[in-house]
Amino acid sequence: MSTRSPLEDLRARLSGLMLRDEHRLRRRLDGARRARDKDRVAREIAADIEAAEARVQRRRAPEIRYPDELPVSQRKDDIAAAIRDHQVVIVAGETGSGKTTQLPKICLELGLGVRGQIGHTQPRRLAARTVAERIAEELKTELGSTVGYKVRFTDSSGDDTMVKLMTDGILLAEIQSDRMLRRYDTLIIDEAHERSLNIDFILGYLKQLLPKRPDLKVIITSATIDPERFSKHFGDAPIVEVSGRTYPVEVRYRPIVDPDDPASEDRDQVTAIADAVEELCAEGPGDILVFLSGEREIRDTADALNKMDLRNTEVLPLYARLSAADQHRVFSRHTSRRIVLATNVAETSLTVPGIKYVIDPGTARISRYSHRTKVQRLPIEPVSQASANQRKGRCGRTSDGICIRLYSEEDFLSRPEFTDPEILRTNLASVILQMTSLGLGDLAAFPFVDPPDRRQITAGVQLLQELGALEESTKERRLTEVGRQLAQLPVDPRLGRMVLEGARTGCVREVMIITAALSIQDPRERPADKQDAAAQQHARFADKSSDFVAYLNLWEYLRELQKTLSNSQFRKRCKAEYLNYLRVREWQDIYSQLRQLAKPLGVTLNSEPADPQRVHTALIAGLLSHIGLKDPEKGDYLGARGTRFAIFPGSALFKKQPRWVMSAELVETSKLWGRVNARIEPEWIEPLAQHVVKRTYSEPHWERKRGAVVASERVTLYGVPLVVGRKVDYGRIDPETSRELFIRHALVEGDWDTRHKFFKENRALLDEVEDLENRARRRDLLVDDETLFEFYDRRVPAEVVSARHFDSWWKKVRGAQPDLLNFEKAMLLNEAAEQVSESDYPDTWTQGSLRFPLTYQFEPGADADGVTVHIPVAVLNQVTPDGFDWQVPGLREELVTALIKSLPKQLRRNFVPAPDTAAAVLARVGPEDGPLLDVLARELEALRGVAVPPDAWQLDAVPHHLRMTFRVVNDKRRKLAEGKDLAVLKEELSGEVRATISAAADSIERSGLTTPAFGELPRVFAGKRRGHQVKAYPALVDEGDTVAVRMLDTPVQQRQRMWQGTRKLLRLNMPSPMKFINRALTNQAKLTLSRNPHGGVAALLEDCVDCAVDKLMADNGGPVWDEAGFAVLLEKVRGALNPTVLDVLTEVEKILKAANEAEVALEGARGPAESLADMRQQLSRLVYPGFVTATGFDRLPHLVRYLRGIGRRVEKLPSTGAKDVELLRDVEWVTGEYEAAVAALPPGVTPGPELLEVRWMIEELRVSFFAQTLGTAHPVSLKRVIRALDKAAA
């Protein structure tokens, strides 16, 4: 026979222990099997079992009695039998039946409460405490021993407690540490009909638990509202009905608008209530209870009833926010009739004594969660039939009653039977948080009595995600570290998140004060009859930018008060200043309890006050979906998920509304209001919302300055834009795209500031090839960008997405592979490049000793398209157009082809095909053969025997790029001007050229000379200017009242200006001959001279003196280039001036007389109009202001002959008109050729002696044509004039 193990003997004793002890010791016994010293372990366990047995022995129920007057006492045996025989029992009974206080006693009498506690849940803390007190009193035991209670922050129970009253939230919290609820052998879930969140959660959890705990008894109590639902939930558990003490109630339907009474259309709810009160007052004495949906309706109705002046009647309000003193008035004894105006708080929570009549408008504010706006709403809506019957039952407690419903019976019958359970109309965040913490799986699969809508589950999950409490995984939903901390804080998740953030940012004290305030009703009271006084008192604490700060201000004020006042004085001060003392104490208690709860999480209070920004940032952590952005157009705020809300009028921010706001709560009544608000900034929000913000990126692009790809970021939080158009590094967002853009822009296109050697060398090679393309005007020489991209793409690793990444990588690689990223020129060129010779596109242009850089641009339509020669302004005066017309060799054949194609068709057809003809011409000639057009015309005639006149070339038809562009640059190589016409540029920049030359010849130039103090002038000046060989031509220049030494561009300018300057200096240094002239002239001469074109005799005489000086200067070897020579010249001119002037005047007198005669002859002349016009023009060209000096001393006598020739021509014109016109054609043609030659001169240059001689030859030709009898000075003909013109122009 085997010996029985001591461990087996101990196991047999476990069934008599408390459930928790049994479970604990059974696990120890299981582990003891593996112990080495089983006897020692057995002795230790035995000692623990004996202690546990002693605990059971101490748990004995006291004597139990039942009050006979309670209906439940009559059914105690039935209830006890049901409990004994079933695991779950439903006890249904009206308020006042005694089920709450007597059921625990029935359980005790059944022997329950010994092996585990009888847990008894209540929806409200006040009920848990008062019920515990009542049961302890009936059992004649001290509260906290046999009967105890536990509510939030208070535990008045111990190891010997058999009946524990608690809120349903406490039971939920205990599940976390006692998953099997082994602490209890019985659970009584009271007021289950209220169907709060906690009750539904407990009922669902118990349904899962009961199969695992067959010893656990569950009793569910409910009003008579749908107990069958609970029975069905628990597998058709038995229902025991307990009737309440009720009396008959008559129901009268009095709709506000009676369809049978048209006069009732003008009635409103207040009028209907007043009519019902009058009706009930006529029924006899008794108090009236009126149900209303809110405080405003209560105030409006109270005002109306007080105005009715009802005899011996008192009107009292009753609602949750009412001060405690005003609430107690409702329950105090009274003798007069009382009309109580109450919210639906009086339906089940409070029993108002003495009520005989009820007036039910049929509406209430019912908390309902909006899935769309994610806010809890309090809309006014019709109550359910069950709620209406509860209201009716309020007046059947002590006697027969009457209930007047302000709606029709049809309306009543059409309403839903029951009010939706809270779980169907509330955010499930707290429940989800607890369930996830408990590891109870998917909320949607949880066995609720009424499973919540999936949208509500989603809303709860969204809130927890908003708070950063949940992390999503593929298999299951799990809590984050924040979520695990929140689950340990038995407060609203939003408020808990604020506390955690406050702890992180060092402002937890302020945040706890605020969250404690948000957990209770506002301690600031505003009695209806003293609203202004209350508002004045409360205004002391207001903060213009934050209602939250008002709580802090009030808190500090109350603390200071408490330091100086006794409790009694403090209570009185609170009342005087419209502060609810009890709520103040509750606020302080919750704050203290929050401190205790947060300690296990390592949260310690900050010792220094926190700045408001940190406080509000911590609050934002719990209110991410409660932020708003002001809409300036509509005046309201854009909130989360497209909602729009307004700041509540009672807020300190109502008058001056900020751009950004956060609201503690969003409540929808007449509209969506934000209550308890604060001004915030968007930059406070974003760091807290990283897990929920949506980021969109647009326009990714490479930025050279940053050396990275950037994009424009838009950050939205639930649709509210926090950030718009922020530049961000795109590399971390889309590395693949960023790498591609980096390679394309930085490496391929070269848009990068870097000193890497390979990069510089590669860019130089690319520039070289691109320049060759520009020169050859082709885009098919360089390989395309894709080839270059592929080159880099094969070599640069995937992690390189920016310049910084590249530098880091290249630093490691370049030591071993320095040539990894180097181009070779051969890889950059296509096959087409073999046809292009670089020598055909030189880098410089040479003209004499000057060398100019050439650049090439292939950009059709641009001003500088083609070849550009860069000319320093300092040498511009030395540059001639010679050779530029031939272009560079690479473009020469194209240019000649274009010129041939520009010819008129009748000429062009002789030279087709033009490209072949151009090639043939260029094979024989080059720039050294002369100007291009002349050489080309000569060669074309030689090739094909067809002459090409000069005017046949249509240069405008030649493409723009084939004409050389001249770009004049300054010393810093910056462009001063640019164009195709070198002469125009020279004229345009003459000032700059002169200034540059003057700067180089500063030691020679003079100004303001009136005496010959110019030293010795060189004929040519040569010097250096910024590295350029500057050449200029100094001369004396007439500047009006003085003479200057100036540097001139060309020898021609020098010759002309030196003559004029010397003349002026001579005259400045000689006495005026005017007095001599006046004495010498006869009156007849003076009269003749007065008829001049100069506008006065004085001007004419000056002209004559200048002419005389010119004559004497020429005769005496002038002009001179040094001071000594000038002195000799001055003496010679001074000595002969007066007689020479008289000689000039003698000739001028003859000229003016002849001119007058010609003018008179033309006035009456008859003949061809064009002939007459030609003669008048001839006269004006011969005699004009300044003609004396311009004509010159030696030619003045000839002028008389030319003028007389006009007279002879007029005389002959009537008989020779046709011939005159014919001869005139030749004169006009040759005159046109002469004028064209003059126009071709550089700007500012007058005709030289040879060209000027042609002008006088044309005058002699006129004499030979129209006045042969006067004779010519020398033989003349049209051919002689042409030969002279060609010679002068060569």
From TrEMBL:
SUPFAM superfamilies, per the entry: P-loop containing nucleoside triphosphate hydrolases (SSF52540)
Domain Helicase C-terminal positions: 272-439
InterPro entries the UniProt entry points to: AAA+_ATPase, DEAD-box_helicase_OB_fold, DEAD/DEAH_box_helicase_dom, HA2_WH, Helicase-assoc_dom, Helicase_ATP-bd, Helicase_C-like, HrpA_C
A Gene Ontology molecular function term of the record: ATP binding
Keywords assigned: ATP-binding, Helicase, Hydrolase, Nucleotide-binding
Keyword Nucleotide-binding: yes
Domain of life: Bacteria
EC numbers for this chain: 3.6.4.13
Record's catalysed reaction(s): ATP + H2O = ADP + phosphate + H(+)
Helicase ATP-binding domain: residues covered: 80-243
SMART domains, sorted: AAA (SM00382), DEXDc (SM00487), HA2 (SM00847), HELICc (SM00490)
EC top class named in words: hydrolase
Family note: Belongs to the DEAD box helicase family. DEAH subfamily.
Protein name: RNA helicase
Taxonomic source organism: Amycolatopsis methanolica 239
